[in-house]
Design the sequence.
């Protein structure tokens, strides 16, 4: 996931998070990018490793994908959560692919060959791009798919982020694959404000990511990508090869919990942090307690 996809860090504040990052000498260094979902998933990884008696040093809030990649290549961190689509498009600069297995196999092979990094098996959670609307607008306009929306865009207003206007797999990709998508009005917002524009009636459609907490809390409708434009963005731990060789328990531990990180689980956890203002570490702890029952 790129920096511009980051949910606003101001919603949770960095100080409480960083206060939990006291180093453990000789421990596995777990990193994260600078948005809610990355904080929570990295904390899940960290707590699972600690439960397996592996010492952990948290190095969260690193920044963008490029910063996280630089950190793991330098050896500043040993692992962090990454997204298959982000790795394919933003790191490897390869064209979008639609098959999740093919995307995973490609990034796993190329990261091993180019960077000496190992992709552990991905979670089912797919934080892909999307367009969302309210139930009322979906019913009024008879919208359930992107094909439904494409010809109706000229009388609808879009709230989005700046990046969505230029990326080949965003608005230009919609226009290329579906045709249409010439909105009556397009306004760009900070990542945390585009949903507010939709919910307050200032927009009819919003760009989205499929595990955004607001989708659940505001009961929004995500329009189905019926022509399969968007690449999958499954999350997985990316680990330095030498770290995994030295401590194979890391792989066994994270592989045991990754299957439980689903779209629904991620939406709930994101909402708990962003809407209910819970600490990401507490949300991660509750998640891990739930899957142990």
Sequence:
């Amino acid at each position: 996931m790129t920096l511009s996809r980051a949910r606003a860090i101001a919603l949770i504040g960095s100080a409480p998070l960083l206060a939990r990052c006291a180093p453990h000498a000789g421990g596995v260094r777990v990193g994260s990018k600078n948005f809610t979902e990355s904080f929570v998933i990295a904390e899940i990884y960290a707590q699972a490793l600690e439960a397996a008696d592996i010492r952990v040093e948290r190095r969260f809030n690193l920044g963008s994908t490029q910063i996280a990649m630089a950190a793991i290549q330098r050896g500043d961190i040993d692992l962090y959560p990454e997204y298959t689509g982000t790795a394919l498009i933003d790191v490897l600069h390869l064209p979008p692919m639609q098959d999740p297995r093919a995307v995973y196999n490609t990034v796993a092979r190329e990261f091993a060959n180019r960077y000496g990094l190992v992709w552990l098996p991905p979670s089912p959670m797919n934080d892909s791009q999307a367009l969302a609307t309210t139930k009322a607008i979906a019913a009024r306009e008879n919208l359930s798919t992107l094909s439904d929306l494409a010809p109706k865009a000229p009388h609808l207003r879009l709230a989005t982020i700046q990046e969505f206007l230029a990326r080949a797999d965003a608005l230009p990709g919609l226009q290329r694959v579906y045709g249409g998508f010439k909105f009556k009005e397009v306004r760009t917002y900070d990542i945390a404000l585009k949903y507010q524009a939709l919910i307050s009636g200032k927009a009819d459609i919003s760009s989205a990511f499929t595990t955004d907490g607001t989708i659940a809390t505001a009961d929004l409708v995500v329009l189905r990508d019926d022509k399969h434009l968007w690449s999958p963005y499954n999350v997985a731990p990316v680990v330095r090869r030498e770290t995994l060789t030295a401590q194979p328990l890391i792989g066994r531990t994270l592989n045991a919990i990754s299957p439980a990180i689903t779209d629904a689980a991620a939406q709930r956890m994101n909402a708990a942090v962003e809407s209910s203002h819970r600490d990401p570490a507490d949300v991660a702890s509750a998640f891990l307690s739930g899957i142990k029952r």
